[in-house]
Amino acid sequence: MKILFQGDSITDAGRDRADCHNMGQGYPLYASQLISEKYPDEEFEFINLGISGDQTSNLVSRLQRDFIDIQPDVCSILIGVNDTWHRAADRAWLSDIQFEKNYRTVLANLKQNTNAKIIILEQFLLPVADKAFFREDLNGKIDITRSLAREFADVFIPLDGLFAAACVDKDMYHWSADGVHPNENGSKFIAEHYLDAFGKIKG
C-alpha cells in the first residue's frame, strides 16, 4: 500500500528531498512508524512530498507530478496555514474564494485521476499571542477546509480543535515553540490521530 504525505513545512519537517521515502522529523515519521507497528504483516511504501513554505497554490502547480503521477492508495494533505501566514504582515489576505478554488482543484483532480483514499488534516494555530490576529483570516479558511472535507475526504482530522483541547491540559509550548510548527510532542500527537484515521480506511 502506497501512502503519500502532502503539505508544507509541517509535513516536510526537514526531509531529504532527494529521497521521497525519507520521512523527515515530523508527524510523517511517527505516523509511518505507528502504522508499520500496528500492521506488521502489511507492506507499505511511505512517500513524503511535503515542501516547506507551500500554500494551496503550490499544490495546484505540482498536482500532476506530485499527486497524480504517484498514484497513491492513500493521500493525506495538511495545507493552508501559509496561505494566511505569508500575507499576515500587511493583512493582504488571500480571498476565501481563491483558497477554496485552489484546494478544490487539488481534491477534485485527486478524486478523478487516482483511486486514493483521502485524509484531510485541518490546518491549525495554537494560542500564541503574536499570531492571534491570524485568526481573522484563518478561521474562515478552516471552515472552508471542513466543508471540502465533507465533500472529498474519506477521513478528516480536526487538528485545530484537537490542539485547542490539548492546550487546555498542557501549555501550548509543550506542543509547539511558535504556535504553527509542532515539536516532537506535537508531531507525535498528530501521528496518533493519523493512525486512528488510517485505521478507519484500513478497516
Molecular structure report:
It is built from nine helices and five strands. It is of the alpha/beta class. The protein has a single domain (2-202), classed as SGNH hydrolase (Rossmann fold), CATH 3.40.50. A five-stranded parallel beta sheet has the order 2-1-3-4-5, with helices on both faces. Strand 4 (117-121), helix 7 and strand 5 form a beta-alpha-beta unit. Helix 2 (27-38) crosses helix 9 (184-202). The longest helix is centred in the C-terminal third of the chain and has 19 residues, at 184-202. The model has no long low-confidence stretch (mean pLDDT 98).
Keywords:
203 residues; alpha/beta; Rossmann fold; 5 strands; 49% helix; globular
Detail the poorly predicted runs. Answer: none
Shape by Cα distribution: globular
User: Helix proportion of residues, in percent?
Assistant: 40-55%
CATH topology: Rossmann fold
Biggest sheet, in brief? Answer: 5 strands, parallel
List the helices and strands and how they pair.
Blueprint: E1 2-7, H1 9-12, H2 27-38, E2 45-48, H3 56-61, H4 63-68, E3 74-78, H5 81-85, H6 96-113, E4 117-121, H7 135-152, E5 155-157, H8 159-169, H9 184-202
Parallel strand pairs: 1-2, 1-3, 3-4, 4-5
Helix pairs in contact: 2-9, 6-7
